[in-house]
Amino acid sequence: MRNNIYSPKSALLCAVSLAVTSAFTGNALAEEDAATNPNYVERMQILGSNQKLRKESGSATLIDELELEKFAFDDISRILYSVPGINIREEDGFGLRPNIGIRGATPERSRKINIMEDGVLIGPAPYSAPSAYYFPMLQKMTAVEVFKGPAAIKYGPNTVAGSVNLVTRAVPDAPEGEIDVALGTDGYQKLHGYYGTTQGDLGFLLEASTLQSDGFKDLDGGGDTGFDKNDFLAKVRYDFNTGALQHVVEIKVAYADEVSDETYLGLTDADFNANPNRRYRGSHLANMDWEHNQWQFNHYVEGQDFDITTKVYRHDFERAWAKLNQFKGGLVDISFQDLLANPFLDENTTRFYQILTGQTDSVQEYEKLILGTNDREYYSQGIQSDLRLNLDLFNLSHRLELGIRIHEDQIERNHIEDSYNMLAGRLVTDGSATVATSTDREEAEAVSLYLQDTITLGNLDVSLGVRGEFIDSSYQNRVPGNEGDYLHKSTRIWLPSASAFYTLSDNAGLLFGVHEGFLPTGPKQAPEIDIENSINYELGYRYNNGDGQFEAIWFFNDISNLKEGCQFSSCGSDNDVEFNGGEVDIVGLEVSGGYTFSLNGLQFPVSLVYTFTDSEFKTSFTSGFDMWGTVTAGDALPYLPENQFTLSIGAIADNWEVHLITRYIDEMLEASGADVALSGAKTEALSVTDLSANYRLGRYGNLYLKIDNVFDEQEIVSRRPFGARPSKPQQAVVGYKYQF
Amino acid sequence: MNKLNNVAKAIIISCGATWLSACGESTSSSAGPDFGAPTLVENEFDEATLVANLTDQVITPVYENFLGLAQSQTSAIGNYCAKLVEFSDGAVDSADVEQSENAVKQGFQDAFASWQQIEMMQIGPLVNNEGQLRNKIYSWPVTSNCGVDLDVTFFEADDINGAPYDITIRTPARKGFDALEYLLFNENLDHSCTGSTFPAGWNARSEEQRQQTRCQYASVVAGDIVANASIMLDEWNGSDGYANTLKQAGTVGSPFATVHDAVNRISDAIFYIDSFTKDGKLATPLGLFANECGSQACPQEVESPYSASSLNNIKQNLLALQALYTGADGVGFDDFLLDVGDTATHESLITGINNALQIIDSYEQSLAETLLSDEQMVTDTHESVKDITDVLKADFINSLALELPATSAGDND
Questions:
Q1: A306–B19: do the CB atoms touch at under 8 Å?
Q2: Which of A72, A322, A536, B104 yields a CA-CA distance of 20 to 30 A from A260?
Q3: What ipTM describes this predicted complex?
């Protein structure tokens, strides 16, 4: 280990500096009445309006409340397809546990990006177990922000790709509420409502959502394949002044839960072609059950040229996912993936297929089915403070942004397995004792710092930034007698960034950025597993004249070591082993534009988003990772479409509006190299069109109709972990929304 | 405001210096004694000698011996088939046929006993592609008597859906030793199919016809075993063979980064004693594992019900294990264990293997018969094998810093 300038001493100095600044703000304490401060909301929502040219260095996209309300999607994937540079692997069709990547980062469980709610990391344990098994409900969101390139340096720990920030509804200034009721096909039901107001300096917001569906899959022998989700949110906000300083304090408390009959089991290609929505009988006991609790305290103080936002947060997440793991095997072994790839290879595979589908009973020990319940408890807590300061120094105009976060998170695994016989089309326990599998704990304590100074030199805004991540993590096997199975690990890294925006005119500008990407290893990973490290470049042009926008950004991620990990969703095993993939290049082009035409009193908004991405391994190697196998230099990354585009068109009148959105996603490799189960397999190119129509009844509210997947096109979106999985079929929803 | 400016200056200057010197990363760690794979105690044992001896002096001779026995078996079956035809023509009497049949059965027992040693030595060509080559020679426990009956007629008609019959592309359950045992030892000449697919008109044919047809197919099956045994040897021997690959472990260009990895590959093979010998050949017919009798003693679940060679199969497995462990007359795993100072594990294994062999030798009936007459004896046999696997899965692995194969990682008992 090196003890030098990279140690936390520099970080400490920055922290002291912040403390001094904070001390300064407390000099004048004299309470005065204050109106609600509009700038506070912008510290939860990071990006400004889409209506003017944004001069942020780095690539950033805002999907605001109006845009979100157009289609009122429940699935974040459908929202993010409108953002250039996003790569997604769909899984269950509903987006219950989305797989989101940015600029080629592997999308598995969104573990390579930062997912935030109101600027705070919202993953169950972002450092210890970054897989995002919890994703907030979108009904309570009023904006979605996506940061890429140097813009991501402020939101660690993962800086290789980018960040997604979900913004919850703000406490309204005046009495405001909404009731939204919807019914749809496949037993879809939605009930959402909120009410909030501010009286004097005190405001509150109450919001509740419930969403359920019977599911669109046809379980052999019958049964639900859907979900039931609930979310409750409460906020209390208080504004006050002390001298020249304006303060806001806010408390947010939220609870969410989900019960879903979701499985990892897919289909053979032949069965998919016969009925993509079929679900084999072997998955009839699959069930995910989780609860999420969170509270957050925010303090915001604003002076003449600065503001400081401090957030204290705690999230608790408990989940148990009972899912079909494998045949018991032993004497005869066959993985579901191999079986579903070739179910009628011989007498052996035919028999296993018949057992899995419930056509034949299990007889032999190795024909039993193992149901694994991955029971996990997580918490994530911390305090973070962000300073923004505008000042003139050295005869230059500076916009200084400085942040510190002290964070701690933990995951405890209590995984078990039970053995079942398939008997007369039902899984029946064989009476054997439950077997404990993973019983361990991973935890991390992290101090993060960032500093970004934007200096204005005429038409040129130059930003220099640096992020420090100081992570102490530990793994402990919790099985009695295994106390000696532990690992303590410390990782220290400084990540610089530099970017520039050159204003060509009031409406146009050029941007450039470079930053270092970083992805820590999990606490359980042996020290020989390297961190993921990259240098990311971007160069682009941005135009916005108020009526129309255009942006084109070329990016290049020069990855010195690509790192991947095995989760159940990707490998079909829970060993969480991580793998080194060596050097990888990812290059791409992101183009987005939009314009609103006016004709005969109608408005016709049109937007187009296009992403091109090319990737290649720079070295040849053989890996135990299921998505790589025997890789030859030049092979491409899995689950990364070369071309994607999204076209959105609409027509808006005084009392009605109709919108259509069409997405195209190229085929994707399911594995990069040879000698693994899905070598050479590809997902199918997918085109999906969604429709949304809204009719305003004046003071009586709005009626709306949504049809997701208008043409009912279904393709194989993935064959992981076990067999072909379909995209969501056509789903029609009618709803009524009343705002007051 | 001046004060604020001064503080900001300090931040910018200090962090600017950090930016200029950034791009640094450091990781340090401390692991518990049980974290990760076990590590070897300091020793002077030459693992390369172990690999060389096991490949050249133990495995290769068994492989080569098997090829010779498989060829003899093919000749004997050819002779037997000819005798059946001659008997039908009245050219020989039944004693000649019986003598020929006995020679065939002895030939099968010899070749199969040799194969049962190879079962314990599955490595390289026999485990590649999910054990494809092994399954072509012997696919147990995946068998299909009905499938064999169907292929007897397909072969006779030389027609599979309009194409000439080609045994090389038939599924493993329809050929190999399991098919051969059924064809040569099953005295019931009726087909075994119970579903809607069966060889039409088969049961109505004369005994002579059915015997001859089965024998002719057996001859093709035996020839296919020879062909696959030759492939096995070709891929094992020679400068590009797998034996040499094992012996070159740790050198530049080797798929084994270290010699220890090659040792681990060989140790994977001996865990056949766990999942196959203990669980498949003993626990399943005993009903300790689920079986077609509903988890009770089940004679029809023994490995070789027609040839009654199930006990000898287990014995050959144990003898092969013993050879690999002791290295025959050369360096074996026993020397490795003694070098790292684990005398207790060494003695447990030697005693355990000898004890299991003694029990096997004390049987007076076949395994299937003993399951009915003296179930406890079979239970004792299972226990004796379990004593060996318990030591292998814990002390042996830990002392030699080896990794368990995935199939033995859990405990199915």
A1: no
A2: A72
A3: 0.89
